[in-house]
């Protein structure tokens, strides 16, 4: 197939995604008011606890086998390489653009964690269902593509919440309460931006205290600013307790062992155990209604996720001019540097016979390097309370560029693997 036909094949699923995202943005407008803040929160909870695990379970249980699982060993390594390379390039970008320290983790997280969930699950099956797709039989392409993208989503979810979440947590501003009495609170501040907040709060509390005619009815707040050297010494002293702190972090463990992960685990178990597959998955299985119900719930995952992405992108319209160098740098990393490096990695793996010669499998591996940031990065910033507006800005810029840049890379990838 020539380049123009491949471009049209790749353009269709990206336009589908863009159209649904625009609908989500329209529904979130103040004049419409359908996807309000509470509505988005509840829909996000349903997607997180119901739709996503149902999609992973139904697709993996139907398509994964023990043989295919052994052939896909390179996929988790490929995604890990994307995380490592993206983090390294983002660290260099943060140094060049002189991003504030508390935003370093956000920049690295957005460049490392790609949207390996909804976008591949839309793009690959949609290409297989296209009229002139280049990957052979439609049904076989769809089944394999769904298996590849479902496993991609499961592995990407684990990496995102075990790697990116901790990167964001490390770079988040720390305000540690040292001492608490009836009339005094000592606070340590190790981020420059919190010095002004702490000082302002101290002045306000002092003023309120002076207006009480000598009666102490407000706690006195004393702020202690920690310089870089003192912070390094304290960090060294806390290294021995790092593992204990990590294991006691309830949010981190809760998100790492999320419903999506359990859906993927159960799907793989059912897929690789023939007896379970005969009971649950095949057409004449006695419990086939379980598989059918999971498929129905899973079908709602992708459109719901894209609607939420479109609704959240509206927040990124604010403050775009102030951070143009950073936004341009992130777009260069995501849509130029990472895909170029990804081509070298995947083609090198094919050359040394590390992966099979299946064109669809190679296309999915290449697609890992060209997708915009993961939506979960926005959720993490909300959990940690840092960089929320900057994250919305990055999401808006990268997803607005996707219809052109992602389509071009999908075209190049199909041209390379055929």
From TrEMBL:
One Gene Ontology biological process: endoplasmic reticulum to cytosol auxin transport
Give the UniProt keywords, A-Z.
Auxin signaling pathway, Endoplasmic reticulum, Membrane, Transmembrane, Transmembrane helix, Transport
**Into which family does the record put it?**
Belongs to the auxin efflux carrier (TC 2.A.69.2) family.
Q: What is its main location?
A: endoplasmic reticulum
Which superkingdom is the protein from? Eukaryota
Q: Where are the transmembrane segments?
A: 6-29, 41-60, 72-94, 106-127, 147-168, 256-274, 294-314, 326-348, 360-381, 393-417
- One Pfam annotation, family name? Mem_trans
- Name-wise, this protein is Uncharacterized protein
User: What's the stated role of this polypeptide?
Assistant: Involved in cellular auxin homeostasis by regulating auxin metabolism. Regulates intracellular auxin accumulation at the endoplasmic reticulum and thus auxin availability for nuclear auxin signaling.
Q: Name one GO cellular component term.
A: endoplasmic reticulum membrane
Instruction: Report the InterPro entries cross-referenced here.
Output: Mem_transp_PIN-like, PILS1/3/4/5/7
Q: Where in the cell is it found?
A: Endoplasmic reticulum membrane
Q: How does it sit in the membrane?
A: Multi-pass membrane protein
């Amino acid at each position: 197939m020539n380049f123009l036909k491949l471009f049209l094949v790749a353009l269709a699923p990206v336009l589908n995604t863009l159209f649904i995202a625009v609908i989500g943005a329209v529904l979130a407008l103040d004049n419409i008011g359908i996807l309000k803040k509470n509505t988005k929160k509840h829909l996000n909870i349903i997607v997180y606890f119901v739709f996503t695990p149902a999609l992973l379970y139904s697709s993996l249980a139907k398509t994964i086998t023990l043989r295919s699982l052994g052939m896909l060993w390179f996929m988790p390594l490929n995604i890990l390489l994307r995380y490592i390379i993206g983090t390294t390039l983002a660290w260099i970008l943060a140094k060049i653009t002189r991003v504030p320290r508390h935003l370093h983790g956000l920049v690295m997280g957005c460049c490392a964690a790609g949207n390996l969930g909804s976008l591949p699950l839309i793009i690959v099956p949609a290409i297989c269902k296209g009229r002139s797709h280049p990957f052979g039989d439609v049904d076989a392409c769809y089944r394999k593509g769904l298996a590849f993208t479902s496993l991609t989503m499961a592995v990407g979810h684990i990496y995102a919440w075990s790697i990116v979440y901790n990167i964001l947590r490390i770079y988040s501003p720390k305000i540690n309460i040292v001492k608490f009495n009836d009339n005094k609170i000592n606070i340590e501040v190790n981020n420059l931006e919190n010095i002004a907040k702490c000082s302002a709060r101290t002045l306000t509390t002092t003023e309120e205290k002076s207006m009480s005619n000598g009666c102490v009815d407000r706690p006195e707040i004393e702020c202690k600013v920690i310089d870089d050297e003192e912070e390094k010494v304290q960090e060294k002293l806390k290294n021995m307790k790092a593992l204990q702190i990590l294991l006691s972090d309830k949010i981190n463990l809760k998100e790492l062992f999320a419903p999506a992960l359990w859906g993927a685990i159960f799907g793989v178990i059912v897929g690789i155990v023939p007896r379970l597959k005969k009971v649950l998955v095949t057409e004449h299985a006695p419990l086939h209604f379980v598989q059918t119900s999971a498929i129905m719930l899973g079908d709602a995952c992708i459109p719901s996720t894209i609607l939420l992405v479109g609704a959240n992108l509206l927040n990124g319209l604010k403050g775009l001019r102030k951070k143009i160098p950073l936004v341009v740098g992130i777009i260069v990393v995501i849509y130029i540097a990472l895909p170029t490096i990804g081509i070298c990695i995947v083609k090198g793996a094919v050359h040394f016979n590390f992966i099979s010669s299946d064109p669809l499998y190679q296309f999915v591996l290449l697609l890992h390097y060209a997708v915009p940031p993961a939506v979960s990065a926005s959720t993490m910033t909300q959990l940690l309370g840092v960089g929320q507006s900057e994250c919305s800005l990055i999401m808006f810029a990268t997803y607005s560029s996707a219809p052109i840049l992602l389509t071009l890379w999908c075209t190049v990838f199909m041209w390379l693997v055929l």
